Amino acid sequence: MANGPALSTAKGGEIYLGSEIDNSLSLLDVLYANQFERVSLGAKLSEQTEENFYRGAPPEWLNFHISEQAESDGLGTPFIKRDGYDTLVQQIRQRRKLPGISTVKLFHQSGCGGTTLAMQVLWDLRKTFRCAVLTGSTLDITNVAKEVVHLFTAGSRGHQNTVLLLLNDEQILKKLQDSIMKTIAEQNIVVYMPVAILLSCVRKDEVQQSDHVALQRELSDKERQQFNEKEKELSRRYSDKCAQFYGFNIMKTDFSPAYIKQECTLFSKVQRTNRPKKTQLAAFLSLLNAYVPGSYLLESQCLDFLKHDDHGDLSLEDRMQPFSHLIITFQQDKPSERRVRMAHSMIAKQCTELMAEAGVNRSDTARNLLTCLCRDEVPTCLRGFVKDMLTKREMKKEENPHSVTEIKDEQERFSRLILDIQKRESDVESASVLKVASEKMDENPFFPQALARVYYIELKDYNKAEMWAKEAKKRDPQSSFVADTLGQVHKNHLNYLKSKELHAKPREILQLATKAIEAFKHEEQLAENERESDMKGDGTTKVSHVFNSRGQFGYVQVCNLLFDLLVHQNETWRNVLTKNVSMNSVLKSLGDNKLYRFNDLINSLRDEVERKCAFFDKYLTYSKPDMTKDDASYIARDTSDCYRKYVGDSPPNHVTEECAPYIQKLKQSLAETSVGILSYLDREYTEAELKEITTWWKEIYSSKDSLTALANYILAHIMLLNKGVDLPLKHNSLTALRHKMPLNPKEAPELHMLALLLYWPTNSEDKCVFNLTELVQHMRCSYEHSYKKYFRSRYLRPLFFIGKGQGLNRIVHRKVLEGWANKEAIKDKSNWSDEKIFQDPVIQEHLLRVEGVVRNYSLYATVGGTQIEVDANLRNSLWKPRQVSFYLGFTIRGPVAFSIQTKTTEKVEISEMDVSKPGEIKPKLSACPDTTKGSSGMLMPSGNDGSAMKQDST
Predict the structure, then answer these.
(1) What are 909-938's pLDDT values in tens digits?
(2) DSSP label of 935
(3) Gap between the Cα atoms of 21 and 307, Å rounded
(4) Mean pLDDT of the region 791-815
(5) Helix extents (H) in 764-833
(6) Helix locations, 199-276, DSSP H
C-alpha cells in the first residue's frame, strides 16, 4: 500500500484516504481494497502465518493474500472454498440491488470453517464493497452505526460505497439497522445506493436447513477433492510438519472422530491426583475451548501459572510437552498479547472427554481452573469466557405437545457445561462448581443467580436457593432480571407443594406466597425504572432496550398457585380470595385465627390481579416479540385462568352501581376494556356472544355519559361488523363522539385510534373533517405516555386496515384480513416481515391503496390535499425519494404503511422532495408535542427532536 490504504468506490475504482479511516474507526477492522499490495513480506512471516492457520489459529487477512499470491505465481492451489461460498457471494450480490440495509446470515457449527468462509468472502469482495469486521463492543450500537456510516461516506459525497460488515452477534441486527438509518437521517445524507449489507456469522451446534447459508461438519465430494489437492501441496512444502496441521487435517478427514481420538490419546493417561502444572493447564484449555468456542488464555497467564515449575527460560511450547502439538499460540493483531488455545474445538472436546474417562471430571477441572486462574486480578477476557462457560444458556428447538406445527425457540435450563456435569456426574457437583465461581468472583451476580437456579430447579433446596438469589440481588441491586430469580425460587416452592400434593398449612402457603409476591413486585418496580447501564449518557435519558415483564407474570402465576392450593383445602377460600366475604368473618371456618395477619395481602389480590391481567391483555394484543415471532401461548392461558378465578367468575357482593351487572358480565367475557373488545376476534367469540357484549356496552353508555363507554360501544359495533353482523348503531353515538373532538392528548391511545379510524377520509372526500396531523400527533403522544416504555423493542401489531367500503364497514380488523389470505400461498400469516399477505388478490380487492410520498427518509400520506406523516412497516422502503402508494393499517401507536409501492406513472424530482443539503438538519414536529395551543387552535411544536426520522417499534 505504497500510496496508503484505499477504499473501493461504487464504480470499481479506489480512493486513498491516508490515515483518516484508521484514526476514526475504533470498532471496525477495515479490510482495504489494496490490502498488502506493494508490501514486501518476508518469507519467514508468510510461512509462519500459514503454518499457524493450518495448525488451527484463527484466519488472518494475510492468509488469503499469501494464498492468492502463491496461486498467481503458479506455486500453490487456490484457497479452499467450502460449498457455501458461491451461495453466500450470490446472496450478497443480490442484496446490492435492495435499498438501504439488508442482512445475509451464515450459520455454522463450531470448527467447520464458518469464520474462515465469511472472511474469505470479504477478502474476495474487497474491491466491490467497503469490507469490515465488527471487532469492538456491540453494547454501544449508536457508535457502531456512526462508524458504518462514516465508512460508507468516506472520501466525500461522490464516493459513497456499500459497506459489507461481518459480525457475529445475531441479536443486534435489527437494532443496528435502525441505528444506521437514524444516523443517515440525522446527518441528512442523500443515499444513492445500499448503505450496508450485514453478514451475520452465527455459530450454532445444530444447524437447521433454511434460506440462509448453513455450514456443517461434513464435506461434499467436491470439497474432498479440493482438500486432497491442497494436502499434496502442503506435503510438498511443509513435509513432516503437516502431521500437526490439525485445523486442516480434521476437515480433510471429514471431521473423523476416530482420527481426533487417535491424536488425543495421551490425555487418556492423565492422573486424577498429583498432576503436573502443564497437565492442569492443558485441561483448562480443553475445557474452555470445548464449551466456549473462540476462547483462549493469554500467554502471560500460562507462563505465570507454570512459573513454579523449574523450567528456566524455556518457551511455553517446550514447557507444555508432550501436549504442545495440540496447542496453538498466535497473535490476533500487533497491539494485542499472544493468545493460547487448543488447536481445534473438536480436539478440546475429545481431550475433555478422555480426561473424564480417566477420572479427571469436568467439575474437577472447572473448580481447579477457578481456583488457580481466577485469583487476584482476572483478565477481562477470561472473566467473559468463564461467565459464558458457566452461565450462558443456549437456545434449543422446542415442539409444542399440543400443536404439531408449533416449534419455538426455548433456552436451555443451564449452560452446556453445567448440563453435562449434571448428566455425567451429579447436580451436587454442578452446584459445587457454581459455588466456587460465586466465591472467587465475588462481584459477579450471574454465578449466584445460576447457583440459585440449580438449587430450586434440580436439588429442590429452597432455603439455599433463596440465600444465593438474595446474594445475586445484593451484587446487582438495580437489575430486574437478576431480581427475578428470588421470585422464581418462592414460586417454584409453591408449585412443588402443589405438584407433590404435599400437605401444607394455609399459613405456610400464605407465607411463601407473600415472599414471592414481594419479590415479583420489587422486580416490577425495578423494571419500571430500569436504565440501560451499558450506554453512556449524552444528555438524554436512555431506557433499556427490552422491558422485563417477568415480574408481572410471576405475580399472576403465584396468584394462580395460591388460589388452587387454598381452595383445594377449603372451598371457603374461593369467596375470601375474590372478596365476596371478609377474612374476619370466616376465620373460624378456616381454622386458624393467626391467618388474619395476611388480611392486607388477601384484600389486595383481586384488584392487583385485575391490573396485571389488563397489562397482559394490552401487551399481547398490541405487540409481539418481533415481526416473525409470537409470545408463548402459556402467557395468555395462565393470565386468562387467573383473571377468571379472581375476577371474572366471582362478582363482589358489595358493588351496588347501576351498571354493575353489565360490567360483571363484560368481565366474565373478558370484554370490560377497550383492549378486551379489540381482541374479540382473536378470542374467537361466537356471533351471539358478540351481540351480547355490544348490547351491554350500549346499555352502559345509555346510563352514563362516559367517553370510554361511548368509544367501547362503537368499537364493539365495529368488531361485530367485522364478524359479518350488522346490528343497528345507537343513532346519536357517532355525533356524540364528534362533539368531543379533538380529543385531549392525555386520553387513552384506543380513543385516539378510534377517532382516526372514523375520520380518516375516503377517496370520495376532498378534504379532512379534522386536522389529521393533529390527531396523529395526539395519538403518538398518548402512546408514548401509556405504552412506550413497555413495548420498546417489540413489534406493534396492526389492529385495523382501511378498506374500500363506506362508513364503519371500511374498517377491517387484522383477523379478517388473515382470514381472507390464501392459506396455501401464505403459510405464516403472522409474519409481517415479508408482507406477502398483501400479494393475495382477495386482499387487494378489499383494501384501499393510499397515495403518498417518501422524502427525507420519512413517509407522508397524501389525504384530502394534506400530507400526514405515517410510519412504515418495512423501513427499508424509505431510502429513495418518490411518489408511492400503500395500504394503511393502524397500530396502537398510529397509522402505518404496508406494501409500499413506487408509482411508476409519475416521476418526482429531488427538488420537489425537499431533500436537505448534507449536514443540514430540517426541524420537524415532535412526536409528542406540547399541549399548548396556538391562536389557530393547532398544536404548536414543542421543539426539534434532533432527528429527521422517527425511530419506533414498527
Answers:
(1) 433 334 333 333 333 444 454 433 333 332
(2) T
(3) 42
(4) 92
(5) 772-786, 788-791, 814-820
(6) 221-238, 246-252, 257-263
Answer whether residue 603 shows pLDDT above 60.
Answer: yes
Q: How far, in Å, CA of 734 to CA of 730, rounded? A: 8
DSSP type of residue 648: I
| Distance, CA of 178 to CA of 464 (rounded, Å) | 44
Q: In this predicted structure, which of 109-118, 553-562, 607-616, 821-830 has the lowest mean pLDDT?
A: 821-830
C-alpha angle 316-344-173 in degrees, rounded to nearest 5: 115
* Rounded-to-integer distance, Cα 697 and Cα 659, Å: 10
Write a three-state SS string for 80-95.
Answer: CCCCHHHHHHHHHHHH
- 3-class DSSP string for 55-121: HCCCCCHHHHHHHHHHHHCCCCCCCCCCCHHHHHHHHHHHHCCCCCEEEEEEEECCCCCHHHHHHHH
Closest CA to 715 of 739, 750, 688: 750
In whole angstroms, what is the distance from residue 344 CA to residue 260 CA? 10
Q: With contact defined as beta carbons under 8 Å apart, do 134 and 147 qualify?
A: no
Judged by DSSP in three states, 461 sits in: coil
What does the block give as the cell for 103? Answer: 442482512
One-letter amino acid identity for 595? L
Estimate the crossing angle of helix 550-569 against helix 506-529, to 10 degrees: 170
718, with CB counted inside 10 A (0-12, 13-18, 19+), is: buried
Distance in angstroms (rounded) separating the CA atoms of residues 421 and 363: 7
Q: How far is CA 824 from CA 820, 827, 828, 836, 837, in A?
A: 12, 6, 10, 12, 11
Q: Are 189 and 153 in contact (CB under 8 A)?
A: yes
3-state helix, strand, coil in the chain (%, to 5): 50, 10, 35
Cβ atoms of 346 and 111 within 8 Å: the answer is yes
Sign of the four-CA dihedral 796, 821, 173, 410: positive
What is the C-alpha to C-alpha distance for residues 353 and 602, in angstroms, rounded to an integer? 54
pLDDT digits over 342-383, tens only? 999 999 999 999 999 999 999 999 999 999 999 878 899 999
Helices and strands, counts by H and E, the chain: 37, 22
Round to whole Å and give the CA distance between 15 and 371: 53
Average pLDDT value over all residues in the chain: 87
Is the CB of residue 134 less than 8 Å from the CB of residue 166?
yes
Question: What is the arithmetic mean of pLDDT over 17-31?
Answer: 84
Q: Decide if 55 contacts 328 (C-beta within 8 A).
A: yes
Listing DSSP states for 354-410 in one string gives: HHHHTT--HHHHHHHHHHHHSSSS--HHHHHHHHHHHHPPPEEEEE-TT-SS-EEEE
Q: What is d(CA 778, CA 782) in angstroms, rounded to the nearest whole number?
A: 6
- Phi first, then psi, for residue 468 (nearest 5°) are -75, -30
Phi/psi zone of residue 591: left (φ > 0), alpha (ψ -120 to 50 degrees), beta? left
Orientation of helix 749-759 relative to helix 707-722, angle to 10°? 60
Q: At 883, which helix (H) or strand (E)? A: strand 882-891
CA dist list (Å): 541 to 137, 356, 795: 21, 51, 22
DSSP code at position 463? H
- Packing angle, helices 299-306 and 277-291, rounded to 10: 150
**Tens digit of pLDDT for each residue in 653-705?**
555 466 777 888 888 888 889 999 999 888 878 889 889 999 999 999 888 87
Reading the block at residue 440, the C-alpha cell is: 472467587
The residue whose grid cell reads 474469505 is 120
Report which of 59, 394, 28, 31 is spatially closest to residue 176, judged by C-alpha positions.
28
Coil vs helix vs strand at 64 = helix
- CA–CA distances in Å: residue 869 to residues 855, 859, 895, 924: 10, 6, 9, 11
Place of cell 448428566: 423
